[in-house]
Known about the structure:
By secondary structure, the protein is of the alpha+beta class.
Amino acid sequence: MNSISDLSTKFTPKDRDVLMAYFRLADTIADFIGPHCEVVIHSFESLEKSVVKIVNGHHTGREVGSPITDLGLRMLSAFEKTGNVTPKSYFTESKEGALLKSTTCILEGEEGRPIGMFCINMNLSFPFPEIIKTLMPDMAHSSMSVSENFSASAGDVIDQALNQAIVEVEGDVSITPKGKNKAITKLLFENGIFELKEATAIVSERLGITRHAIYKYLREYKSEA
């Protein structure tokens, strides 16, 4: 049977960079799912102190520097033998008896070597309405609502952004009729719409101005920036 020292991995600088690149993803997932979700990144460089990133660690009582779990060791051993991780999603319990739904992904470094694990643990021991509440908008902070256009094509994204910009500019009485097209173009520029290749053609056609005029506006905005 493999010992912990047998499974430890010698890291390269690139391996550490790859692992650290997942830190921001851990924060993002924990923020998205909510306070009942623990996200953990393990490093195989030191299995005795494998936890290198943890968000909401109070659910399992762990912190940075905690060791790998026995299940983590089994998954690592299985991965090195077969290239697979089973189970990928599973139910388990914390040492306090809390029911957790978990999922684990092996992270690979140079030459496909396993360098760590990305784990998500959802604490299901709380009343379900309490968990759901964290996934719903807080009406007391409705200003946190953000508009986002989900489209199947870049053209749709541009059209929807343009429609929104037109409405916003039309509602601003401080903008003269002569300055509306320039204001619309500036708003689209500030929102990054002209990073899409079709934007100039679509905007010029919808606004009834030449592409040259749009390019002129964009040069002006870029120089200001």
